[in-house]
């Protein structure tokens, strides 16, 4: 008999079966039903627009969203960077958080297997050797020799079995198996997050280095401008206001360098730790934004598939399954429990007589225990289990909503990143043109050196904005692969069935 809801549980009928000593077991409590996929057709209110192209700029390729397309497990290879591939491979091999998650999965798997052993009888072998003395005349001596002091040797085999009449063990195994799956999906999430974090950190490291290089050039240019203005001011050709304005601008530019250096050092340290090294052992591999290729075909999983791909959603579903089984465990704990035991062995006054004629003994017993009064402890434990189920259900819905938000945010970011890169590239081109014209005019004597240096400043500032826009497009592309689940189902090391634990 199976009880499919809290209200339809039938302890009385199961009790009748138990009293009749029937071996046909029933599992009390609710049978878990996989939550239905969300009834939505898209991630955003309006269909996302394909990101536009920006010609002759790294990361400026046009991208298109392909609905229903699959995601490769090694999605980072789509950036075509050997350095990035090496960093992620090193992280997957050495990261301690991933190794801890793998160990946690092994522990959960063995815990499940240990509980499955309760389906079978427990058999133990014992051997007792004792020396005894009976009170003289007070009690009849045990041995036929009427000895009051004697040795007694007793080898025996004991068998114990608890029939799973109400499904207590079955629900316990079900709960542990679901927990194992939750740990498995947590490990997969750690794997995907690790790959994404390495990719994003490496891209940001390259971006910060390029920004620092451009900022140093800005400082050099600003220093030249201040030097010229100081000379002009001393000769009366420039005002103190002009000099003060340039000195202020130079100081502000200098002030941007320490935060950039700090962020670069932090990204370097982060990559070292992600790859399993100490900060002093940061990996030598670095990437250049100009060497990265932007993936042009971006898969967009169907909303109904997202809940089957995101490891955090699957982990929440497994937790919900475990909580459902725990309700059955709590109900079964309130019902009678049957234990079957048997013992067989020999006993003798010496080792040689232990297995002699007439030395054997055996016994078989059955016991039934049922809770009568426990101060309401078991009742409240059942209510707590039901409340835990409601909590897990709410957490599952929250995980689904967060997953859809992540995808929607990333789709919007990619669209805006493309527009931002296009605008930054246009500004960069304009600044380069202004610098080129200024150089020509300076060489021909039609423009001052201050005009040329001012054009250099504008060009460097435009370059910094362009580098930031490039990095945003690369990192948000990586974020999309993570938001859609990371393609773990296509990785051979993650293809264990969710129905049967390894």
Key features of this structure:
502 residues; alpha+beta; Outer membrane efflux proteins (OEP); 4-stranded antiparallel β-sheet; two-stranded parallel ribbon; 55% helix; disordered N terminus
Account of the protein in words:
The chain is α+β, with helices and mostly antiparallel strands and 502 residues long. The protein has one domain: Outer membrane efflux proteins (OEP). The chain is built from 9 helices and 6 strands, in the order H-E-H-H-E-E-H-H-E-H-H-E-E-H-H. It has helices at 11-19, 82-94, 96-116, 168-235, 240-274, 303-309, 311-332, 377-444, 449-483, and strands at residues 64-67, 122-133, 149-161, 297-300, 337-346, 360-369. Strands 2-3-5-6 form a 4-stranded antiparallel beta sheet, with no helix packed on it. The protein has a two-stranded parallel sheet with strand order 1-4. Helix 3 (96-116) packs antiparallel against helix 4. The model is unreliable at 1-24 and 497-502 (pLDDT under 50).
Short description:
The chain is α+β, with helices and mostly antiparallel strands and 502 residues long. The chain contains nine helices and six strands. Helix 4 (168-235) runs antiparallel to helix 7 (311-332).
């Amino acid at each position: 008999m199976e009880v499919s809801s809290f209200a339809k549980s039938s302890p009385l009928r199961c009790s009748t079966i138990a009293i009749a000593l029937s071996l046909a077991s029933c599992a009390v409590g609710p049978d878990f039903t996989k939550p239905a996929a969300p009834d939505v057709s898209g991630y955003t209110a309006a269909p996302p627009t394909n990101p536009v192209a920006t010609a002759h700029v790294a990361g400026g390729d046009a991208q298109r969203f392909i609905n229903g397309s699959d995601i490769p497990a090694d999605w980072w290879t789509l950036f075509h960077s050997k350095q990035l591939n090496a960093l992620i491979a090193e992280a997957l091999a050495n990261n301690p958080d991933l190794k801890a998650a793998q160990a946690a999965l092994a522990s959960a798997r063995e815990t499940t297997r240990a509980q499955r052993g309760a389906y079978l009888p427990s058999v133990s072998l014992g051997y007792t050797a004792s020396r005894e003395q009976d009170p003289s005349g007070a009690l009849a001596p045990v041995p036929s020799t009427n000895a009051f002091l004697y040795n007694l040797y007793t080898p025996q085999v004991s068998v114990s079995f608890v029939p799973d009449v109400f499904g207590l063990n079955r629900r316990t195994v079900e709960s542990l198996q679901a927990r194992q799956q939750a740990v498995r999906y947590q490990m997969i999430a750690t794997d995907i997050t690790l790959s994404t974090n390495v990719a994003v950190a490496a891209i940001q490291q390259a971006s910060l280095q390029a920004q620092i290089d451009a900022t140093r050039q800005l400082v050099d240019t600003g220093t030249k401008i201040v030097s010229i203005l100081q000379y002009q001011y001393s000769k009366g050709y420039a005002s103190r206001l002009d000099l003060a304005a340039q000195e202020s601008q130079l100081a502000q530019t200098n002030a941007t360098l320490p935060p950039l250096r700090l962020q670069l050092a932090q990204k370097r340290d982060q990559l070292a730790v992600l790859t399993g090294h100490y900060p002093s052992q940061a990996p030598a591999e670095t990437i250049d934004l100009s060497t990265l290729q932007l993936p042009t075909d971006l898969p967009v999983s169907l909303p109904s598939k997202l809940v089957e791909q995101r490891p955090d959603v699957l982990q929440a579903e497994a937790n919900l399954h475990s909580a459902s089984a725990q309700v059955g465990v709590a109900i079964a704990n309130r019902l009678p429990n049957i234990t079957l035991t048997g013992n067989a062995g020999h006993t003798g006054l010496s080792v040689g007589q232990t297995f002699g004629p007439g030395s054997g003994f055996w016994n078989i017993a059955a016991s039934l225990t049922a809770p009568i009064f426990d101060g309401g402890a078991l009742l409240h434990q059942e209510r707590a289990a039901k409340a835990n189920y409601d909590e897990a259900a709410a957490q599952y819905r929250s995980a689904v909503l967060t997953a859809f938000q992540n995808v929607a945010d990333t789709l919007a970011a990619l669209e805006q990143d493309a527009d931002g890169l296009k605008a930054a590239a246009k500004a960069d081109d304009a600044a380069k043109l202004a610098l080129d014209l200024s150089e020509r005019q300076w060489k021909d004597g039609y423009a001052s050196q201050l005009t040329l240096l001012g054009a250099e400043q504008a060009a460097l500032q435009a370059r910094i904005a362009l580098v930031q826009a490039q990095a945003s497009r690369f990192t948000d592309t990586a974020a999309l692969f993570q938001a859609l689940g990371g393609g773990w189902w296509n990785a051979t090391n993650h293809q264990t069935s969710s129905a049967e634990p390894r």
